[in-house]
Amino acid sequence: MSDVQDKPGGGRIEGGIDAIVIGADAEGLTAAAYLGRAGYNTILLEAGVEIGGAVCARELSPGLSYVDGEHLISILDPAVIADLDLYRHGVSYAARCLDTAYFFEDGKTLQLGGDLQMAAAAFDDEEAGSAFQKFITDVFEAAAFCRPGFETAAPASDIEKAMRAAPRSLAARLNFFSLAPAQEVLDAYLPDGCLKTALLCEAGFRSAAAPHEPFSFMTLLRRWAGEIAGLQGACAYPQGGAVAVVTALRRAAQAAKVDIRAATGVASILIEQDHAAGVELEGGGQIRAPIIVAAGAARRVFMEMIGAANIDIGFQRAITAAQPQLASGHLHLSLKGVARDEKTRGHMNRRLVYAPPREALRRAFADARAGRVPDDLMIEAVFPDVLDEETGGDRMQLLSAIAHPLPFDENPNADRRAEIEKTILANIEKFAPDIEDRIKERALRLASDIAKSTSALAQDYAAPPSIIEQVALARVAGSAGYVSGLYFCGREARIGAGISCAAGRMAAKAALYEAKRGGRAA
Amino acid sequence: MTAIFDLTVIGADEASFSAAAVAARAGASVAIICPRKRKNMTASFCDMPNFVWRRLDLHEYGLSLERISARVTLGPDGATVITYEGARETKAALVKSGHADYLLWTDFVDEMKALEAGRKLRDAAIAAPGNGDAGFSLFSGGVRECATLGQATSSCTAALDDYLGDDALKTHIAAHALGPSGLGGAEPGSALALSEFFDEHAWRVRPDESGPSLLSTLETACKDCGVEFFTKDIAEIARDSARQVVVSLVDGEKIKARYVLFASPGAAQKTGMRASVCPLAGHGAATAVLRITLKRPMPPVASDDKAVFQILDDAGDLQVARDAALDGRLPESLPVEFEYAANGDIIVRTSYCPASFRDDDGWREWTGQDRQAAARRMTDQLASRIPELSANVRKTKIEIIGAASPDRAPVFAGPGFVGQGWAGIENVIVQPNRHNAVAAAVRLVDRILAGE
Predict the structure, then answer these.
(1) B221 to chain A nearest CA, in Å?
(2) Which of A317, A469, A482, A506 is the best mutation test for B, with the most CBs of B within 10 A?
(3) Strand-pair partners of A13
(4) Which of B150, B162, B320 lies nearest to residue A473, judging by beta carbons?
(5) What is the DSSP string of A347-395?
(6) ipTM above 0.85, yes or no
(7) How many CB pairs under 8 A join A and B?
(8) Which chain B residues have a beta carbon less than 8 Å from that of A362?
(9) CATH topology of domain A3-60+244-321+462-516
(10) Euclidean distance between the first and the last CA atom of chain B, given in angstroms as a whole number
(11) Whether residue B129 has pLDDT greater than 50
(12) How many CB atoms lie within 10 A of CB A346?
């Protein structure tokens, strides 16, 4: 129960609250659920009317919906699934361990099983197979070792201790993996061929660091540090799409008695004597609580809600320095009829990836950085209704694709949008030749579109920088500007592309730890 | 015949000779392999730090070095930006030429110098594994360390945009910081070049015109402390045992050592090898050095023959040039650096050349025509700022460093990945491109000898 008093000058002051979470995306929901389960009287405030942030279902045509934001999950924190009992709250997998079919410019295809270790063992080409096995073993070991490093608030001393205890050969390998361009690591391990092209593409996908540039191998390492249903490096399609994960998180939060309030924007965070004391609402009124967890963009949280005057200058610099150059584009298509091409039909129950050749990939990054739409794009596509019957329409088929790299554009005009759509389609045609004739409806979702629907800035949905830079930024942002009682799990505190929830978990854990230590416990 | 040493240094530049001499003075048995005699294709070098000078007793060789007078960038339409070693002098020059950011200069330089995380990152790149200070310690820093790590791993463009507003000044800094290693401003990690560029040892020096050259002095110093010289070309570098590397020369001679050190990526490139990994490693591109002999003496640009000059229209051109080089093309707008040799020749350098060329038939090696085209383009760039040069060129001589065979030169796992064998050859260390190559090479040798 909260206490309500009249605030001098209008509005209400609401007290008796233990924690406030700002932003109801997956991370915010996670943090709120953790706090609620710990017995804290928690309020979750969302400025928009939709719960789930960028990940939500949208109608493409009558009876056919697509999931905006994400279509697969690969780095969802297993601890969150276990702690919040997400399986009981509705998470189940339509495709638990998704195979991937890679398509190449020369018409070749490569199919990799979802269990990469099994896939390596079953590789046709003996030379490539044994090289791949060695590669997978080395990278999986390094990725599993790095996992704590990808959790924002992991204490530096813990990591340092773990690093010092690492075997000599692993430490050396980690050095190599963390600094090297993906191209170089792959050159060191694998013979030329389709497999190398496919992995090069995976390493550059949804990242601002091109595979030939320093630190880019970490993108792949981060992906493979994730595990789905106990399988490292796998990706899955949840029943009902990625939005089902958000729905389960919402249920978990509600089950933990979290008070979820949509359409309740926060104007500012109240700071009293360097401590977070509550929030001032946009509609007037205050809610007071000793713990605030913010899941919005750092610029918005720290520069607008708190104000530059209350924030350390170095911290301000770190959170405002990023100048995005690249972004990914999402294209959702409703298709009439069935695919005529055998190649497409044979792979529709898989994750489909078009992997451009190495040189084309390098040019694509250069073009996108220069503001041009590249000819060749990496495409990751799924047919959600083939993977999950619940998603499909009666007569229509859905294809959801993510294309990368595209130039970052805060406000693309109609011509630019048409050009991007045309290029994405041209690249999809490389693995689905007849698709253009079958398109009934289409929805192009660029960073600016997703930002508009979540009342955020387009740059919040730009391609993230190299993982090393993300780790550095996440640790800075995780400090929440040294404001006591404030915990941050917004975009800058996350590492890697996709739904993770690790930042939300770590922010809530940090808040609970501080409260338990006797600081400002509720 | 087989000779066995503690350390084999490959290369014939200042960093290689310094590293070999310091190691020998520390009691190690050292071989140096300098297959091709270096032609005099440079006028200034990175600074010879005091600690190296003292350890090699260079004052006993009559060597006298003077610091270059200024760093100059010649922009389009006669715009010139000049910075000096001293902050006060630089500020005055910026005020004089109307650059608004003069007030920020000192703070900016201090901030760049303070990128400790950058140093940590480089140390991690060249450190022996298992060392507590390095290893994979990047994740383990505190919040402030992480903030600087974030800066150091970001791009040079982001760092410059964050601090400065004056485009001409940004172009000047980017040109001098990135130009020597051929990096693009948008590349992740290119901010590292900035932090090192403002290090005191990055300020280049020139030998006194009347005294001995730095290179010959260091060569003599090596000989004096018992470094053994080998001048034949290298046939192969291979792993001999778990602890030793063997370098085979074309005459059949074999040199075994616990460690093989390339003190600069240029030294590795000259022997047909390529090194990478670190942001400052010159990966995937080649360097062209052109010596222009004039028909008649010409007054130096800005009346200063002791400065290092860069020619660049815009900072963004560096990334365009970098992309073109990686794509196997000679960039249209080639960023070049030049300086005056003691005899009045002009030495022009660019690190934005492709390692090999790509045309309709695929990748191919450098040809004589490509070399001519590169020389012409470099001369044209120079003539765009010094119009009277065109009619005054007597002869040119071009050297390409780092041209690679299209079927790929052997690639080492990267700078300083000592003691492992998942790729490349064990115990072969390649130093990345450094603004202060001598200091870095000597510090690296110290760490090797200390068994780190």
Answers:
(1) 35
(2) A469
(3) A5, A286
(4) B150
(5) TTTSEEEEE--HHHHHHHHHHHHTTPPPS--EEEEE-HHHH-TTT--SS
(6) no
(7) 176
(8) 323, 326-327
(9) FAD/NAD(P)-binding domain (3.50.50)
(10) 31
(11) no
(12) 13
In a domain, B319, yes or no: yes
pLDDT digits (tens, 9 = 90+) for B220-241: 999 999 999 998 888 878 777 7
In which region does residue A278 sit, left (phi positive, over 0), alpha (psi from -120 to 50) or beta (all else)? left
Number of C-beta neighbours around residue B209 at 10 A: 10
Mutate to test the interface with B, among A177, A475, A487, A492 (most CBs of B within 10 A): A475
Distance from CA of A365 to the nearest CA of B (A): 9
Range name among A246-250, A308-312, B304-308 with the lowest pLDDT average: A308-312
Same domain (yes/no): B244, B296: no
Residue B85 falls inside a structural domain: no
A449-480 residue pLDDT tens: 998 888 788 888 999 998 888 888 888 888 88
B194 DSSP assignment: H
Q: Say how many domains are in chain B.
A: 3
B147 CB within 8 Å of a chain A CB: yes
In this complex, the residue of B130, B147, B284 whose CB is nearest that of residue A318 is B147
Same domain for B53 and B132? no
B195 φ, ψ to 5°? -60, -40
User: Domain boundary at B181, B202, B223, which?
Assistant: B202
Select from B116, B138, B187 the residue whose CB has the most chain A CBs within 10 Å, as the one to mutate to test that interface.
Answer: B138
Q: What is the mean pLDDT of residues B115-120?
A: 58
Lowest-pLDDT range, A144-158, A267-281, A298-312, B290-304?
A144-158
B359 touches chain A (CB under 8 A): no
Residue B77 domain-assigned?
Answer: no
Domain containing B365 equals 285-354+356-401
Whether B409 has its CB under 8 Å from any CB of chain A: the answer is no
Per-position DSSP letters for B359-393, written without gaps between them: ETTEEE---HHHHHHHHHHHHHHHHHH-GGGGGGE
Q: Within this chain, do residues B270 and B299 fall inside the same structural domain, yes or no?
A: no
pLDDT in tens, A274-283: 889 999 999 8
Residue that is last in its domain, among B183, B202, B221: B202
Residues of B in contact with A167 (CB under 8 A): 130
**Does A392 score more than 60 pLDDT?**
no
User: Nearest-CA residue of chain B relative to A145?
Assistant: B136
Indicate whether B414 and B273 sit together in one domain.
Answer: yes
Range with top average pLDDT, A114-128, B291-305, B416-430: B291-305
Calculate the alpha carbon distances from A281 to A36, A127, A254, A289, A302 in Å. 21, 63, 22, 13, 16
Q: Is residue B81 in some structural domain?
A: no
Using a CB-CB distance cutoff of 8 angstroms, which residues of chain B are in contact with residue A214? 153, 187-189, 277-279
Query: Chain A residues with CB inside 8 Å of B160's CB?
Result: none
Q: What is the mean pLDDT of residues B400-426?
A: 51
Please give the average per-residue pLDDT across A157-162, as a whole number: 62
Q: Based on the domain organization, do B296 and B271 belong to the same domain?
A: no
* Other C-beta atoms lying within 10 Å of the C-beta of residue A158: 12
What CATH number is associated with residue B240? 3.50.50.60
How far apart are alpha carbons A143 and A221 in whole angstroms? 5
Please report the pLDDT score of residue A215 as a whole number.
Answer: 86
Nearest CB to B150; choose among A160, A208, A318 = A318
* pLDDT of amino acid B225: 92
d(CA B170, CA A84) in angstroms, rounded, equals 50
Hey, where are the domains in chain A? 3-60+244-321+462-516, 118-232
The CA dihedral of B120, B125, B130, B134, to the nearest 10 degrees, is 0
Chain B residues with CB under 8 Å of A208 CB are 188
Q: Give me B408's structure tokens.
A: 């790929």
Same domain assignment for residues B314 and B346: yes
Domain containing residue B385: CATH number? 3.30.70
Question: What are the phi and psi torsion angles at A362 (to 5°)?
Answer: -65, -40
